[in-house]
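Morning. Coffee machine broken again, so started the prediction first thing and wrote up yesterday's gels while waiting. Chain of 338 residues, entered below exactly as on the submission form.
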Amino acid sequence: MKKKYYLRSFIIAATILILSSFYNLPYYVSKPGLAKELKPIIQVENGYKEEGNFMLTTVRMGKANIYSYALAKLNPYHELYKINEIRRQDETEEEYNVRQLYLMSSSKQAAIETAYKKANIPLKYHYKGIFVLNVKPNMPAAGKLKAGDRIFKVDGREFESSEQFIKYVAGKNEGDKVEFSIERGKKISDVEVSLQRIEETGKVGVGITLVDDKEIEVKPKVTINSEDIGGPSAGFMFSLEIYNQLVEEDLTRGYEIAGTGTIDSEGNIGRIGGIEQKIVAADRAGAEIFFAPNDNGAKDSNYNAAVKTAKDIRTKMKIVPVDTFDDGIKYLSKLKAK
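Came back before lunch.
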């Protein structure tokens, strides 16, 4: 009888534990991810080889359940964020993921621009249309357009920038209808949407957040297989790897070099989130040097947070502050080869 009681109690307790793991709290939890070598991810056609490695660093981000929440409270390198600290107001989980993938795509383009400009290699741009980042609820586009849609024509017209698109739509009246030619996945379709006045701007629109969708054409050709990595924080490290394959001099000098930071088309490096977790990830991967955004010397810079974490975990990694792509190149140029 007692065996049956214990067995029943065990089954009930196990069931409760399993079910509770699927219950999400209104938080996201981030933890150290991986430091990935960039040579297998980036290939420049007939590019030069390197003795060392450049590595991008990641954090693992997911919705918190009661167990990951409790663990984050105990682990100094697990961070908790309220949902509104991660996702925009009215942004769905799908829209958030689409935005992260777009940010990764735009960071790749900026990295290519920066590296090829530094190597004095010309670039060509091809405008593809408008990329929908998110759709506001209770607006005309809701239910008709989705995050990830590419709008390449409006009323049969093609445009060369999002500014031209916005100007055309703003020149119409509330209640007018416009026809969007869109690409969703691999399917092409036409969608008719009515215009409504947007309270925030006073102008007419359909209720979408959008950005330009463009491609860069370069020779030699470069391929970046970032798969499902989201966000813009790998941009700077992408630019270093691309540039290093474009030029004969090996800037790695045989070292394992990790880092993080956004990059724009002018080579400016921006701060990122999760620097503490990325230091842990890089140390675990055996990195010897870590580039951290310096925020032009701000007290709360990524660099200062990285230095503190490096001391806390007693890593031997050299933490290097950078504000621009050129800062990284100057540092690497002075390294003594192994």
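The radius of gyration is 24 Å. Going to sketch it on the whiteboard this afternoon.
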